[in-house]
Amino acid sequence: MTVKVLDSVDISVAKGEFVSVIGKSGCGKSTLLYILSTMDTDFEGTLRIDGNDMRNLKDKQLASVRNDKIGFVFQFHYLLNEFSVIRNVMLPGLKLGKLKESDLEQKAYEKLKILGIETEARKKPNQISGGQKQRVAIARALINDPLLIMGDEPTGNLDKMNGEIVFDIFQELAQVYNQSLLIVTHDIDFANRTHRTIEMEDGRVL
Amino acid sequence: MNKLIVSISISLMIARLKQTLVAAIGVTFSITMFIALLSFMAGLNDLLDNLILNRTPHVRLYNEILPSKNQPVDIAKGTGSAYNFIRSIKPKNQPIEIRNSAAVIRALESDPRVLGVAPKTTVPVFYNVGMISLTGVVSGIDVDAETRLFTFSDYVVEGRPTDLKTVPNSIVLGIGAAEKMIAKIGDVVQVTNSTGQQFPLKVVGIFQSGIQDVDKVQSYASISTTQKLMGKSASYITDIQVKLHNLETAPKLAKEWSALFDVDAIDIQTANSQFETGSSVRTLISYAVGITLLIVAGFGIYNILNMMIYEKMDSIAILKATGFSGSDVNKVFIYIALSIGIFGGTLGLLCGLGGTYFISQIPFSTASLPTVKTYPVNYNPIFYVIGGVFSIVTTYLAGYFPSKKASKIDPVEIIRGK
């Protein structure tokens, strides 16, 4: 038996737009996000990223789309404790393999600098604070200069102050670097300050 | 690209160094045991086989004393309603010497399949000790050929076997016979032949085969000495022993020569079938034990990888979310398994070599094996090849299923499950 989680959803995000998605728990906003990120492939309809249809792509091709065009920030940081902070940031870039390792390290360092945590670059993730970890996760999402950054309640696990810092970073990315962002959140304050808010209820966009 | 996968594998292994080492040591231990066990078993097999097989000709030509298979009465065809039954047929008085032995030996020696030929003349005798006569057998041999083909000199524990050639009327006594006669080197013993004639023979050596019953009766002399004992001419040879280049061809050649030279011929496989059976069963058992050890080690690796994947579920999920494909994740864990296998296996091969050397140094002396001072081993390189290949194959298989599982992890499930 299949249950329809999302119905008649038709949205698009333009370049440089900072969009938030809000809605009650279980309304399907996270599901929407994972479908848009290509991780969840079990849907009917059309998904275009950068004008390309994502349907009928193989697992490996989807992985490379995620690697190249999408940056993801989760509620939890998901850093690998085996690697240093800078190495964690570099991992998706190493996978992409467009830059030499030394150049990539330079780039990762710059991304950390944007987020104000370049001093922690050589530490292991378990040696830095929760707020810093989330910023490292954002730097990791930025490393391949993605078309779109998606966030699944990226401030959900953070206190007010760190949440503010993360929001400011997102806003700076959108305004200064013309970065597109699509962020799922529970936080109405957060949503009200974005360019556009998509409200969802029972799998539909209101 | 692959460098990245390798570096991830290495980081995961370092993060779980203790478990990784335990898994590798499991492989090392099993490969070590596999190599040491097989080397030792093969060494023992060689020793036991050599005890009999090395001293046994691959093909022996001789004349069997048997009644003629074709009785004259068989020529007459019956009326159809009558049959011939002849009972108590006796063999006719036919010499047991091989006819035209010199020509047969020359023909065999020029055969390219033949490694060497050693003629032999066996004479039943009595050893005279005072009033008592002990039964015995004197084999007349060509000392050089016998040493070259059947390592005769290895079993002469006292004296020099070559003296048989140079000292006229000399004998090498079996150790059991020598003890009974209280004969030492340089003594003269009396030997009586089947017609009652007595000969004095000088003892030039003591012989120990390792088989006590043989040592009590068997003695060796030169061919000419035995011919004198028999009162026969210089062409009198009862056995021709042939050693071949390829032992497997013995049954075929035995048949061929039997027909060609009109003599009886027996091959080593027929004469000693039980030894081959014993050897192959022992080899089979040691392979079974060795492979069992490796499979157990494989389960260890399987467990550790499974646990590692369970622990690293989040890491796998995020790798996949950030663009690593299933096959990349699969490779990470396969590399880990193979590293464990190659590292543990290489160490195991070295330890196996060391263990085998250690076994070969353990003193082992037994009266029945005069030439053996330590445990026998066999440094056959094929064991190392099998061990090496098998360590990689088992670890690959042990890593295959956990890796497959890791590659199938759905990042959405892990990430949303939090």
Molecular structure report:
- The complex is a heterodimer of chains A (206) and B (418).
- In chain A, strand 2 (48-49) and strand 3 (52-53) form a beta hairpin.
- In chain A, strands 4-5-6-1-7-8 form a 6-stranded mixed β-sheet.
- The model of chain A has no long low-confidence stretch (mean pLDDT 86).
- Chain A is of the alpha/beta class.
- Chain A is globular, with a radius of gyration of 17 Å.
- Chain A has 7 helices and 8 strands.
- Chain A has one domain (18-205): 3-Layer(aba) Sandwich (Rossmann fold), CATH 3.40.50.300.
- In chain A, helix 3 (85-96) runs parallel beside helix 5 and helix 4 (101-114) packs across helix 5.
- Chain A has helices at 29-36, 59-69, 85-96, 101-114, 130-142, 160-176, 188-192; strands at residues 18-23, 48-49, 52-53, 70-73, 148-152, 180-184, 196-201, 204-205.
- Helices cover 39% and strands 16% of the residues of chain A.
- With 418 residues, chain B is of the alpha+beta class.
- Chain B has 2 domains: 2-53 and 275-416, no CATH class; 57-66 and 95-270, no CATH class.
- A 6-stranded mixed beta barrel of chain B has the order 2-3-8-5-7-6, surrounded by 4 helices.
- The A-B interface holds A 30, 34, 37, 39-40, 59-60, 63-64, 66-68, 72, 74-76, 78-83, 91-92, 94-97, 140, 144, 152 and B 1, 4, 11-12, 14-15, 314-315, 317-328, 410-412, 415-416, 418.
